Amino acid sequence: MSTSNKREKTDFSKGPVWKCIVAQAIPLTVAQLVQLLYNVIDRIYLGHMGDGNSMALTGVGLTFPVVSLIMAFTALFGNGGVPIFSIKRGAGDEETAGRILGNSFALLLGSSLILTAAGYAFTKPLLFAFGAGEESYVYAKEYLNIYLLGTVFSMIATGMNGYINAQGFPKIGMWSVTIGAVCNIVLDPVFIFGLDMGVSGAALATVISQAVSALWILRFLTGKKAIIPLRRSRIRISKNITKEICKLGISNFIMQGTTCLVQVACNSTLQLFGGDLYIGIMTVTNSVREIFMLPVMGIVSGAQPVISFNYGARRFERVRSGIRFNTLIGTVYTLFAWLLVILFPTFWFGIFSDDVQMAELGIKAMKIYFFGFVFMSLQFAGQSTFQALGDAKHAVFFSLLRKAIIVVPLTLLLPRMGLGVTGVFMAEPISNVMGGAACYLTMRMTVYREIKKQIKASEADRDGE
């Protein structure tokens, strides 16, 4: 396919907006599904190891804040550049888009090395600060010591895959995740059970799989099929480009960083009021949540480059159509997902653990945690729109509002007001309602108003010609 044909095929300003989004979202949702398997397959196997399975699951759960922190820097330097890249591509400025791509890669590579060193230096104090007990610490340390080896692969694979999708190759992006996930699914039982490596085997399988994904992505981005390829001459850190990437990426960083903060608050509070068992329950609950977040995240990921591209191309009516479609599909889906959790909680919990005591206590907690799940669609519709249009100020504020300003204080306060561990699980639905509604309403009052103004200005210009 010639370069001109490739550009025409990935021109998001043509055809029905919903079709452009769905064309992006379907392979991205499949990629999200595979990524989900990538993330949770370890927990599924560890949760069914037999004796000691609950503690192994708890140990892996204690490493979540570290993983979230790594993902926060990935989001800052990787995902933060994708909307800017899309806007520049939509405006026809491919030279700047190429420099953004190279700058993002350099930032991901450098920060991954720093994070790896810091992780090894502070493993013990970090895990105990995150709520580890003496017994669960052994499992957490065993997993983390190996997982940290793959930090560079994880950050490159996750951070650079967005640039493939932004160029209109969602199927390639899907395969980028699929290849690594298949490796992980195959290697996990071999290492965990076949070689009797347990938690260490789960971590090693993840590292190898991340390395395979990273190499696949780099092979595509440096090859001839990429519209805007990654060139060695462009892999350098520019102060101005880095500033722009961080300006928008800070919202992604805060979203992931506050996830780390929430996990620390949850784990430490659960350790105090319920012990290791409830940390294991929260690990399962978060894993089920990841399953149900998958399709809505696929729609959001598919909509972002389409909205960004049309905004850069000044096709404002198409921007508005994209936002409407994004919101409607997300709302319908999250309502359906909420009902599935309420109706079949035993099934979802049983995927990750066969511990009878954990299931008995965990199902009640999971129902509380998922209450009001539909409001998450409003959070993502508003948040993704702000990010797609480069509105860093609002994106950052609403990242902070839901988690840092609402969830964390409630997680710490509600258990101490007589609610115990129940208070920890109540914090999430309260934040979904308050944060989701506030984010979406603000987006409607600001973005829609600006789009309406731009449409009127464009019409006036046409009338004056």
Total beta strand runs: 0
Instruction: Give the CA-CA distance, first to last residue.
Output: 38 Å
The description of the largest β-sheet is: none
The amount of beta strand, in percent, is: under 5%
Helix content: over 70%
Short characterization:
The protein is mainly alpha-helical. It contains 19 helices and no strands. The longest helix is centred in the last third of the chain and has 44 residues, at about 420-465.
Task: Characterise this structure.
With 465 residues, the protein is mostly helical. It is 83% helix and 0% strand. Helix 4 runs antiparallel to helix 12 (239-273) and helix 14 (316-343) runs antiparallel to helix 17. The chain is globular and about 65 Å long.
Question: Descriptors for this entry?
Answer:
465 residues; mainly alpha; 19 helices; disordered N terminus
Topology:
Layout: H1 3-9, H2 17-46, H3 53-62, H4 64-79, H5 82-90, H6 94-121, H7 123-129, H8 134-147, H9 151-166, H10 170-194, H11 199-221, H12 239-273, H13 276-312, H14 316-343, H15 345-350, H16 356-369, H17 375-388, H18 392-413, H19 421-464
Helix pairs in contact: 2-10, 2-11, 2-13, 3-8, 3-13, 4-6, 4-9, 4-12, 5-6, 5-13, 6-9, 7-8, 8-11, 9-10, 9-11, 10-11, 12-13, 12-18, 13-14, 13-16, 13-17, 14-17, 14-19, 16-19, 17-18, 17-19, 18-19
